[in-house]
Amino acid sequence: MKATDKRPVGKTGISVTALGVGSAPLGGLYAPVAKEDATAMLTEAWNAGLRYFDTAPMYGNTRAEHLVGELLREKSPESRDWVISTKVGRLMTTERAGRTLPPAPPKNPLDPGWWNGLDFREVFDYSYDGVMRSFDDSQQRLGFPRPDLLFVHDIGRVTHADLHEHHWTALTRGGGFKALSELRDAGDIRGFGLGVNEWQIIRDALEEADLDCSMLAGRYTLLDQDAEEEFLPLAERRGMALVVAGVFNSGILASTSGRRKFNYADAPADMIERAEQLRAVCDSFSVPLPAAAIQFPLRHPATTCVAIGAKTAAQIAANIEWFEQDIPEELWATLKSRGLTNR
Q1: Helix (H) or strand (E) holding 159
Q2: Strands 121-124 and 90-93
Q3: Residue 189 in contact with residue 147, Cβ under 8 Å?
Q4: Whole-angstrom distance between the N-terminal and C-terminal Cα of the chain?
Q5: How far apart are CA 67 and CA 256, in angstroms?
Q6: Cα separation of 160 and 144, whole Å?
Q7: What Cα–Cα distance (Å) separates residue 265 from each residue in 140, 173, 182, 261, 262?
Q8: E-assigned strands of the chain?
Q9: Is the CB of residue 206 less than 8 Å from the CB of residue 230?
Q10: Distance between CA 132 and CA 182 in Å, rounded?
Q11: How many angstroms from the chain centroid is the CA of residue 275?
Q12: 258 pLDDT exceeds 70?
């Protein structure tokens, strides 16, 4: 498979390249990213033929939306062959005299913070008005009126803990899903779903709304296949497209240095050991571990595409090379026989 191969996104009528571009690193994930590097990465992705870009208000507290928008809004809208997704659920605001803000949310264990973040503070709002305002704000930052897909960002118990029921009620009974349906019906977006690290909440959301496409990060990878048995078949049955992100599990499956992250934190010993077992099998077939990691999710028919983040032009070029590298079927069979994968 080529990174530039087009794949249909469920029933939306749009297609994305098999490899998409994530923009979380452009917000300064783990380390600052100069604008020149960010622009070079996006330009390299475009010139290589990648045409799916994902962003979110959260990434760098709006920085990533500005950077991605700067690239795409200069492309001809008449011959638009690219797809962009952004997210709702967080409004960005600032401290001002006379303004009363809700208490700062508890620290999300999956949020490592931003080295290049702009000077805004996130306020969670999954209600009808919150979704509509988030959509309006993203249009302004991106600089064009119609992002293709909207993902409800980080709804779930891992992010919100004791406040989960409050936010879930805002999304379901408070009109969040209603707002998304209205935007889709009006043609302002082509589809919506969830963008989360928890597959269980997408399962629950499918009972509340007609989801077109969702993004699942870090939960269908060489290190974490928890979603495979129950969730992936459900996505297939419901006709919901699935973008798989976080295929390197925050870097441990791509790291060539001493710094090893797993799920946005320092990797525990058992995950380091498992990653080394995966690496040993890949080495025996002369296949880089990152190549196996980036290709693995597409072995399941529920996966529509893989979205991968990068900070530099060299990194996105390496991702494309890994994505397109030939991998013998014997490697996959060996991983399965050793209990390292289910497929």
Answers
A1: helix 157-160
A2: antiparallel
A3: yes
A4: 18
A5: 27
A6: 31
A7: 33, 34, 38, 5, 5
A8: 6-8, 15-17, 19-22, 52-54, 83-88, 90-93, 121-124, 149-153, 191-196, 213-217, 241-245, 261-262, 265-266, 305-309
A9: no
A10: 10
A11: 22
A12: no
Q: What is the mean pLDDT of residues 227-232?
A: 96
**By three-state DSSP, how is residue 42 classified?**
helix
Condensed to tens digits (0 to 9), the pLDDT of residues 79-109 reads: 789 999 999 999 999 866 556 666 666 666 6
Task: Tell me the mean pLDDT in the region 324-343.
Answer: 96
Instruction: Count the alpha carbons within 13 Å of 238 in the hemisphere toward its beta carbon.
Output: 23
pLDDT at 268: 82
Question: Regarding beta strands 19-22 and 305-309, do their DSSP bridges make them parallel or antiparallel, or are they unpaired?
Answer: parallel
Mean per-residue pLDDT, 27-55: 96
Percent of the chain with pLDDT over 70: 92
Task: Report the predicted TM-score, pTM, of the whole model to 2 decimal places.
Answer: 0.94
Contact 330/296 with Cβ under 8 angstroms?
no
Six token digits for residue 310: 């990068």
CA atoms of 149 and 82, how far apart (whole Å): 12
Q: Residue 234: which of 296, 152, 302, 151 has the closest Cα?
A: 302
Write b or e for each residue in 21-54: b if 16 or more Cβ atoms lie within 10 A of its Cβ, otherwise e.
bbbbbbbbbbeebeeebbebbbebbbebebbbbb
Tokens representing residue 263 in the block:
């799920």
- pLDDT score, position 256: 58
22 token code pair = 């994530």
Pair 164, 198: CB distance under 8 Å: no
Residue 307 structure tokens: 């979205």
Residue 275 has what pLDDT?
92
Residue type at 36?
Answer: E
pLDDT digits (tens, 9 = 90+) for 130-160: 999 999 999 999 999 999 999 999 999 988 9
Tokens representing 17? 């390249």
The pair of three-digit structure tokens given for residue 85, joined into one six-digit string:
């997704």
> Could you give the residue numbers annotated as active site?
54, 59, 87
